[in-house]
Amino acid sequence: MTSRFSFELKATDGKARTGVISTPRGEIRTPAFMPVGTAATVKAMMPESVRATGADILLGNTYHLMLRPTAERIDRLGGLHKFMNWERPILTDSGGFQVMSLAGLRKLTEKGVTFQSHIDGSKHELTPERSMEIQKLLGSDIVMCFDECPALPADRDRIVESMRMSMRWAQRSKDAFGDRPGHALFGIQQGGLEQDFREESAKALRDIEFDGYAIGGLAVGEGQEAMFKVLDFAPDQLPVNKPRYLMGVGKPDDIVGAVKRGVDMMDCVLPSRSGRTGQVFTKRGVVNIKNARHADDPRPLDESVDSPARNYSRAYLHHVFRSNEMIAGMLLTWHNLRYFQDIMNEMRHAIAAGTFDAWEEEFHAMRALGDIEPI
Q1: According to the annotation, is 201 in a ligand binding site?
Q2: Confidence (pTM)
Q3: Does residue 47 share a domain with residue 150?
Q4: Which residue, 14, 13, 32, is CA-closest to 23?
Q5: Catalytic residue positions, numbered
């Protein structure tokens, strides 16, 4: 165990990187996928089960937790780690993305954002200073700057205005964060799809100096091709010796493409949300367990994915899902989370061995085969 936050880059293969983030609560192997525990829980999973899938770190949501049960209550109860029985690292987002998505329920100024709660309509204010306060009360290991994330597409004037305000907020976040040994603060690059704005944002963040750097403002409707075009240059604009975190991504092929372009960390609700809606990820692509083709199929979803779902037939999983039984969401979520962690582990090994390109080719070739033939 270490008393400080640090990042060690262990190997590269092309732009792909593997390393270790060290924190007082444990190591995070990179590239890392962070399951999302929005309201202090990864839906349909116990924290022990999430750890069993191979996850080193979870993500918590500042916006949701500040509203219910409140950061002050969580602090009184010993902090977020104790509250949700997860003693490993936790990253909390700043709340900015959720607040920005409220549209008609919010008002944006240079100071911050005032908004109405989606729960009861009560009014709240979120500023860089308040976001830092909330995340300190939660006790998160990695704290995110407060920023604005405009939806895409947007014109250049809107993007640059938003980006520059986010950079001013980044400085205020750093000032409010203060000196907290063992805890890290990440800056968030903005700038839409514009390379010059991304570079301006990256320079502002480098000048402020952060423990890690996130690439924000993607996976907001621009499509994979546009996202990859940005990732062809955005990670290179950030420091080599600090973790790079792509926020809110994504699908398995998004993740692989991001790692190929130099990203170290990702998060997404997709594996858990998909599990609850009957969408299952396998080495041969996506399976919809709702489909009638599975009703008499005695085979498992994917024998190569070591999760409890492997002990049940497709027929059984189809039955419990169609019957609205809770076990369906539990088993399918566990399977999906393990599949995502398997991808990360395989990429770490491939990068270390210098075989990432060959691994990636096989990854896409297997998915192109499609699901196994019906019986």
Answers
A1: no
A2: 0.97
A3: yes
A4: 32
A5: 93, 267
